[in-house]
């Protein structure tokens, strides 16, 4: 044995000596058998022994980690009901309402602007204490008031809104409005479509049977459910043999034709809402006194008395007055070139020298002056010469140029391709 150890390499000898020393030290520090726990020394193999374990009560553990469950009550705001009246109906004190509206500006704004039909949800804890309030703002936003850290705070919960495309088309049989409804467009979309093409088409007088339109638009989707209509992306309107195309420029939010020319013009084609017009009033214009046909120097719109009349373009009121022939009338100078005239108003809402903007209400339709019935007589003058406002070439707003135009034209091709694809899919149904 000694001879074997002698023949070992030096490194092995050192390691053997090191570990031998560790064993000797460990044996030296072993406890005396008499110092061991008598209970431990009596443990035998194969026997069962009880072991004390600290166990937390499951009921207590659950109660300490379980979030409080709220009880919700929903209330609908009644006509003439304020927040104070509503809180009283819910059983909440005026003091709580005061605390809420003085703790946060947003809370004050929400609770002082309640509308009939609004639905509010009140949340109470297990002790029947008020903890939260929710008011639905729209399909994807909810205003929330909650007790946090001993004070009330507010936040707006927002759901993610996705967008998808949809398509509508129709041929006009009776009127544009009915055609829009039959195609599946809602009221806002019908008015938006009329607004897009309103600088080229007089929707009060120029729409004809068998005119058609095609529309590509967005839908708002929340959690897989369509909750609203988005913008019109592209549209084509066929009116009396003419084709008008409008495409949305996503960057500016404005509409241009397929060549990047602005749809918006310096003047509205008609100075009132097409939905209110009942007919083209007496186009031969018999003089109410002599009974003779007199030259017709403008366009007459028959509509209900009180229908708002709009400024056709930006300008300055040249004259706002009354005489026995024109009744209440307004003349607007738009530049050294253009003047528009509005006659037989029930009342005027602008004054001479006042600056007005396109679409601003300048008065209401009536039957003042020498007339055979309530209507608006509208004239359009170019360099002092009367022109037909329904057919005159209107100056355009600024069109796209340069890189902006190139980007728009590329996107326009994509939008029009989508419109055509949806049209073909609809035809296959």
Automatic annotation (TrEMBL):
Its cofactor is Zn(2+). It is found in: Cell envelope. One of its GO terms (molecular function) is metalloendopeptidase activity. Residues 295-389 form the M23ase beta-sheet core domain. Keywords: Hydrolase, Membrane, Metal-binding, Metalloprotease, Protease, Transmembrane, Transmembrane helix, Zinc. Pathway: Cell wall degradation; peptidoglycan degradation. Pfam families: Csd3_N2 (PF19425), Peptidase_M23 (PF01551). One of its GO terms (cellular component) is cell envelope. The chain crosses the membrane at residues 12-30. Residues 163-283 form the Csd3-like second N-terminal domain. InterPro entries: Cell_wall_metabolism_enzyme, Csd3_N2, Dup_hybrid_motif, M23ase_b-sheet_dom. One of its GO terms (biological process) is proteolysis. This is Peptidoglycan DD-metalloendopeptidase family protein. It comes from Vibrio campbellii.
């Amino acid at each position: 044995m000694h001879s074997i150890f002698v023949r070992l390499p030096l490194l092995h000898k050192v390691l053997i000596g090191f570990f031998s020393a560790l064993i000797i030290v460990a044996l030296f520090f072993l406890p005396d058998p008499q110092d061991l726990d008598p209970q431990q020394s009596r443990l035998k193999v194969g026997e069962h022994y009880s072991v004390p374990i600290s166990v937390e009560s499951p009921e207590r553990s659950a109660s300490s980690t379980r979030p409080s469950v709220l009880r919700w009550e929903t209330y609908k705001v009644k006509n003439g009901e304020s927040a104070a009246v509503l809180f009283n109906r819910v059983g909440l004190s005026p003091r709580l309402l005061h605390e809420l509206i003085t703790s946060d500006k947003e809370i004050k704004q929400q609770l002082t602007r309640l509308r009939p039909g609004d639905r509010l949800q009140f949340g109470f804890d297990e002790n029947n204490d008020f903890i939260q309030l929710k008011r639905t703002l729209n399909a994807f936003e909810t205003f929330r008031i909650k007790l946090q850290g001993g004070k009330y705070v507010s936040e707006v919960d927002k759901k993610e809104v996705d967008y998808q495309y949809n398509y509508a088309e129709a041929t006009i049989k009776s009127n544009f409005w009915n055609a829009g409804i039959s195609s599946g467009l809602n009221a806002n979309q019908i008015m938006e479509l009329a607004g897009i093409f309103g600088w080229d088409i007089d929707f009060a007088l120029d729409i004809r049977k068998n005119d058609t339109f095609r529309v590509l638009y967005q839908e708002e989707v929340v959690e897989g459910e369509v909750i609203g209509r988005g913008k019109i992306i592209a549209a084509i309107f066929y009116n009396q043999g003419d084709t008008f195309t409008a495409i949305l420029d996503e960057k500016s939010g404005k509409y241009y034709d397929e060549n990047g020319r602005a749809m918006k013009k310096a003047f509205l084609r008609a100075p009132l809402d097409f939905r209110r017009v009942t007919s083209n009033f007496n186009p031969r214009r018999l003089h109410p006194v002599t009974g003779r046909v007199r030259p017709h120097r403008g366009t007459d719109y028959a509509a209900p008395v009180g229908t708002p009349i709009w400024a056709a373009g930006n300008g300055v009121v040249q004259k706002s007055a009354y005489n026995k022939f024109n009744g209440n009338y307004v003349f607007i100078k738009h530049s050294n070139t253009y003047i528009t005239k509005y006659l037989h108003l029930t009342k005027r809402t602008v004054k001479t020298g006042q600056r007005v903007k396109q679409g601003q209400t300048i008065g209401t339709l009536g039957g003042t002056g020498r007339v055979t019935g309530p209507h608006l007589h509208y004239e359009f003058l170019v360099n002092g010469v009367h022109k037909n406002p329904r057919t005159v070439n209107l100056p355009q707003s600024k069109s796209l140029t340069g890189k902006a135009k190139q980007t728009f034209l590329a996107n326009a091709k994509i939008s029009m391709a989508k419109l055509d694809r949806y049209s073909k899919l609809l035809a296959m149904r």
